[in-house]
Known about the structure:
Strand content: 15-25%
Distance between the termini: 27 Å
Low-confidence stretches: 1-21
Structural class: alpha/beta
Radius of gyration: 28 Å
Strand order of the largest sheet: 7-10-11-4-1-12-13-17-18
Amino acid sequence: MSEIPLKxxxxxxxxxxxxxxxxxxxxxxxxxxxLSFLGRDPSRADNADLCKAISYLLRxxxxxxxxxxxxxxxxHHKKRVYYLSLEFLVGxxxxxxxxxxxxxxxxxxxxxRLGHDLEEIREQEEDxxxxxxxxxxxxACFLDSMATLGVPGYGYGIRYxxxxxxxxxxxxYQIESPDNWMRYGNPWEFERxxxxxxxxxxxxxxxxxxxxxxxxREWVDAEIIMAMACDMLVPGFRNDQVVNMRLWTAKASRExxxxxxxxxxxxxxxxxxxxxxxxxxxxxxxxxxxxxxxxRLKQQYxxxxxxxxxxxxxxxxxxxxxxxxxxRIAVQLNDTHPAIAIPELMRLLVDxxxxxxxxxxxxxxxxxxxxxHTLMPEALEVWPVGLLEKMLPRHMxxxxxxxxxxxxxxxxxxxxxxxxxxxxxxxxxxxxKTVRMAHLAIVxxxxxxxxxxxxTELMKARIFHLFHEFYPGRFNCKTNGVTQRRWLLKCNPxxxxxxxxxxxxGWIVDLDQLRQLEPLADxxxxxxxxxxxxxxxxxxxAEYIGAVCDIQVSPxxxxxxxxxxxxxxxxxxxxxxxxxxxxxxxxxxPALAAVPRxxxxxxxxxxxxxxxxxxxxxxxxxxxxxNRDAGMADRLKLVFIPNYGVSLAERIFPAADLSEQISMxxxxxxxxxxxxxxxxxxxxxxxxxxxxxxxxxxxxxxNIFIFGMTADEVAAEKQAPKRSPREIHLADPAIAGAVxxxxxxxxxxxxxxxxxxxxxxxxDPNDPYLVLKxxxxxxxxxxxxxxxxxxxxxxxxxAVLNVARMGKFSSDRAVREYARDIWGIKVD
Length: 828
């Protein structure tokens, strides 16, 4: 695919009139970086050296654009968006930056002349593991779209030294080890020691009097941790716009306690430094213990407080009062993790800046907007009041006051309704008093959005129905999206090239242009080319599986894929029960004309989630039996690929034939993996949950495989069950055979007890995820999948239509809607 020309911008753009000269300039610059930055002889440099050198070269190219972008914000008095997220699942930056800057071709030629291969160099880069799943990946997609659309935005989070964890498999069990993605340094970041902010914890609050005789509350005797800014730059697509993630890293307020050091107590001398800097060490500390919970809350306040000191510094450069604060600043809370920002802004405005409460509250509500990402009440974040009173005493006072005024409003509108007051209160009056962070976020924001249409409607009808009644205009839908620049252009160059050959490159910045592919779905020659690209992608993934998992799979088999966080509500159990059912059918009837199938799983289980880890063990145990059964050959294979992350996802999405989106209806907020699969030409098998419904509406019901109960049917079934799981088990021999195999020892070397907890959960009359109640529908739907897959041209036709109709699911569309409806920013 030919590259869109990049406009010249400064001395490091490498866009001379002659492409040959540009390549020569790049070679010289690479050699310079190898010598000056890395201290390496260019003639002895290896791929890892060149990976860093190219990263520095691209960073040089980005920084000038970033400075110009920042200047334009000030010169045009632009309103700015601050996107606060505890996660940014960035992945690798090198390939994305090369593509967005238009330098991929020239750099590929430059390193080839130096005797290296660009793809091998790209494999040297570590994934920036600053997130866990969809929430963090959404944040990264949004930054790409903000930069491409020219939205004046910043991402704010934490620069974790260690990512989620590195996942190994030992005897089929998940083993976690530290993911030290920073061990070789991070060439993409700029450390900003001049942006060093003191963050307070603990201490006490007293009443003080200022120079004007005004009483105010003062937070004193606090422990101080310093927050240092680290910037990572995110380029827009060929438009000279660059935004940044500002990630905070913790520093001790003093490096060394000399009084201990001079006495020879060296451990005590550095103890405070070690304790302080723990705050930004690890993503998601174990919160099943008190210390882990405390560190988690400390992380949330740490990055929020540092961010608001940055916001205040930037705002007060050009503004002498706070009359235009919410006209200049929009703060988007990505879930409840940053919701402590609401009392923090109130503290700054009331205690530090001296505004009266009512005015400060109006500014606060006009500034904040909140994105909810869960429908499960047990997943809504709460914090013990006692912990907040100890760690953030002034914030707890402010939360009480916010709640007091809020409940006064509720009582005035609904007099004599104590149950409503209890259910809507920010403070949960349980045996242990808690702060309900979702309630705080709703009350303190002018906008509350869901991330899919069904998610938003269920928010309004179920978990937040009282708030929707109280704030009827506050709730809205902003369906998630993904950036096509990473999730098609970068990760699937073969398909991107085929598409661009037929309809041009406009789809890269306007995904709706993919509609032009629709007539080609009925062109056999085009469909054959499409299927050839897919087979090439499958062959590359098969090679990777062989190298990593030591399992040989055929690219001619259907690749049936479920890759996501391992959790009971994601229902990996439904999938593995189908695999067992299929295995039993094939084993009992060797002549069965089944479509060859390779079932692929990947995903990490939270370290303390026992059932999720047992599900991984079940998958790997079933795989061991199936893959060593000579009768299966290439008819059925089962693979669990370890250490799922962004870079692995970029290998898998282009190769998938079938996308498993099988959560129980009413549990998945939206999902973005479903969008990435469809954008890469996989057909979806799924429930009417999350964004699956909107994907069905866009691609058409004939181009997606839907099964199972709807959200309303799930609610009715839970209220008045028609059949128990045990009744289903007794009535259906195929289902019974699959379930009973888990306790027969068939997949556990004769150990009948190993998977008993899974069987108990499946047969539990109160199974919250209704696995067996959807299983018969799922098995029938899988049969329908198989029938369509037999006709490769028909499967290819449907795949083309899926891609052609994915325009709605670009993060560009989502960011435009946020800008228009929530942030009050005009996008050209």
